Amino acid sequence: MEENRNQETDFMKETIKQRPLNRKKLIRRTLITVAMAVIFGMVACLTFLLLEPIISNKLYPEEKPSTVVFVEETEEEEILPEDMIVDESQMNPEPTQAPALEDEQIEQVLSEMQLGVEDYSSIYQGLSMVARDVQKSMVTVVGVTSDMDWFNNAYENEGVISGVIVADNRIELLILANINAIENAESLKITFADNRQYDAKIKKKDNNTGLAILSVEKTALNPNTLSEVAIIEMGSSASSSLVGAPIIAIGQPVGMADSFCYGFITSTGTSLNLPDSAYKLITTDIYGSKSATGILVNLKGKLIGIIDTENHTNSMENMISAIGITELKKTVQNLSNNKDIPYLGIHGSDVTVEVNQTHGVPFGVYMMEIDMDSPAMEAGIQSGDVLIRLDGAAIGSYKEFAEYLVDKQPGDTVTIGLLRQDPEGYAGMQVEVVLGMK
């Protein structure tokens, strides 16, 4: 009986075998999973990179630098000898008035004045106080360049110049300096009046003059530095009474940092022979270094010129000279706002009444020289042409031309009205020039 039962259930016994592993399918699924993960990660990263700046700007809007604007200062009034005499009617309430002094009496009073040692000491102490106050605005710029000697040993060269703080755009302190002596530097470091040193970078350079605006991030500055430095106050180099005026040269007038000298302005009538500009050269009687850098200030501590030793004559190579700040203001303003300086490539001068009457040259800007391969030359402008209009606006002087051009941008198209001499006189013509960048 039992045997029969076993026979009946024998057909229900099964042997379960493991299915054989398909290695190819497993590898394929693994690769697909990894690929999908990689694609998902790339999409997520790309989405984050695209959206993060937008989200950050919404949540934490980045502060933008403010626009730098230098106010045009009016020409300071000249102090006449009679203005130095006190008006007794203003000092004395009594109705009686002293008789006015004649010129001979003024000269007699001045000739009888005698200054003692204490007087001279007081005068120079006052000058020193002005200079030391201005030094809060001065910086020392060090340009570092790496090189190899003949034995393949690495060393560093350092060039040192002086600069002046001209603006604060909320994000950076902006420093004006002539960087021709350190233009190949690999890195720049600036030392402020508190002797702390910081990394700096070139914001924008004008290749015409060698002047550049250097910037230092305010977030990198020590609070003590910010409290101890000052922005220089702009003066005027347009005054008719500058010649003979006392001035102070500050920076590196004798080739050493943090030095200053006193002297007088000897001339202001020379214009620099630079393209597209009408910069004034200020000369002084200060004997200094051939590599002098820094600024000139008046007795009020106001900036009137940037020391320049590259554009004066060989006969005065050791005398300190400077480019007038009034003529430079627009250029410095554009550099401070990170704008490129446009380039046309002409050297011009005013047509005076004498030249007009003697030689019959029309009033306007006389083209003395055209730079080779400049936009002006490519447009067909020639030496001897007379420029009379820019974009339809009448131009009567080289200064007007320079002031109009500095507000343009490289790449702008300018329409120039010219007069060109021919056998019958001067014929009008018009050319269009695309401004470049030098």
- Tell me, what's the shape? flat
Helix content: 25-40%
How is the CATH topology of one domain named?
A: Thrombin, subunit H
At the fourth level of CATH, the homologous superfamily of one domain is Trypsin-like serine proteases
The ordered H/E elements are HHHHHEEEEEEHEEEEEEHEHEHEEHEE
Overall CATH class of one domain: Mainly Beta
Largest sheet: 6 strands, antiparallel, barrel
CATH architecture tag of one domain: Beta Barrel
Q: Can you tell me the residue ranges where pLDDT is under 50 for at least 5 consecutive residues? A: 76-93
Spatial separation of the terminal alpha carbons: 117 Å
Strand tally, please? 18
**Order of neighbouring strands in the sheet with most strands:** 1-2-3-6-5-4
Structural class: alpha+beta
Task: Tally the helices.
Answer: 10
Mean pLDDT comes to 83
Write a brief caption for the model.
The chain is α+β, with helices and mostly antiparallel strands.
